[in-house]
Amino acid sequence: MSLVRTRCDEQIAHLTSRLNNSYRTARSSSPPQPWNRESGRSFRNRCGSLLLQRQNGDQTAIVLRIVFPSTNVKNIKGKRVAKSVSAQTGRKNTNRRYNNPILFYRLQQINQLCEFSLQLSQWNHQVPELPEVETMVRGIQSTFVGSRIIDVRLPECFCRPILMEPDFQKIQQLSLRKRVTNVTRRAKRIVIHLEEGSAFVVEPRMTGLLLVSDPPDQSHLRFEWKVSQGRKRHSIWFWDRRGLGTLKLFTPIQLDELLSHSYLGPDALKLTMDDLHERLRRTDRPIKVALLDQKLIAGIGNLYASEILHQAGIHPTTPASRLRTPRLTRLLAATLAILEEAILYEGSTLGDGTYRNALNQDGNYQNKHRVYAREGDTCRTCEAATIRRIVQAQRSTFFCPHCQK
Question: Which pLDDT value is given to residue 126?
Fold first, then answer.
């Protein structure tokens, strides 16, 4: 825990320094310079002050506070920025004394607003990846498949609402009395198939869970399906602490597009040697970064990419296009072996305890990790080197310099 806290403090100090320098540059520039060159957004000199803070010592409760001076709020650009951030967070408060809108923006979404992002997720959060989502699918299949939806409900929740398409009333009209024919997975999405071809598509993202047992708490319940199987009645809940997950009701045409390879690459559990060779030879990006591209291969995330490359004996910085048949063969075998073993152990529940299976129980694969989040520890494979950590595409990569060449 001390290691995590030290790293968080270091990154907060670094980020605060960069942001303050950027503000000074933006406010003194003539003409004002874009604050984020990549996205083309511009804060220019309309920004007031910025503060990073930790609430109650909880590392997951770090927020970014942006204060727009009242003189600048009148400016049309300032209004656009204020409206944009407020719309995305759903959290806006007006300080009447100074007439300043104070906007709180969750740190995990800061990269949507500016180029300075503080990547804490590798230390205290794990995004559900293919094994975790597959475990959720298998956990709800027996309750869902063959049942009929008798009601859908939005539980009372005062937190940020999840993205839902279409609106709730439309979902009610289109789904009530429909029979669930299957529950499958597409990459990191859960697909609940209904008769007549439509389907619910749930994307858990950071902290979303599908549960058939009592949820971790009642305050973060986002959606409830009530189903009947003969005389039996069941409930399936979508629980999401952060509210970053999405729930959409797809038409048959939309579903076909999602399931096609034009939207996402082939599923990592169904990879063939031809798929792997054809897709990796087209990119010179480091192999670790390429594995995270869902349009190349769907389902692999940061945690399992590190584990897969370690088992395959491939250095994460190796350009993907340079992998030849022997190493591609090892990569394919490692991909299938790691993912299938992780599913067998019902995924990985890390230190924050966010991920749970459908029965609200921990996964167990975290005990099998050989490199992920083990920086400085002795490699469990060779026992001759220590695990190192580097940053690739703003994500932590863990590897053994002795095992992976």
Answer: 59
User: Which pLDDT value is given to residue 73?
Assistant: 31
287/372 same-domain check? yes
At residue 21, the pLDDT reads 52
Report residues of the chain scoring pLDDT below 50: 1-8, 22-125
Helix or strand holding residue 84 (H, E): helix 76-89
> Can you give the pLDDT at residue 401?
97
Q: Over 267-318, what HEC string results? A: EHHHCCHHHHHHHHCCCCCEHHHHHCCCCCCECCCHHHHHHHHHHHCCCCCC
Q: How many residues does the chain have?
A: 405
3-state secondary structure (DSSP) of residue 177: coil
Asked if 140 and 96 sit in the same domain, the reply is no
Coil vs helix vs strand at 47: coil
Residues designated catalytic: 128-129, 188, 395
29 CB contacts (<8 Å, ≥6 apart)?
44, 45
Q: Which domain holds residue 139?
A: 130-259
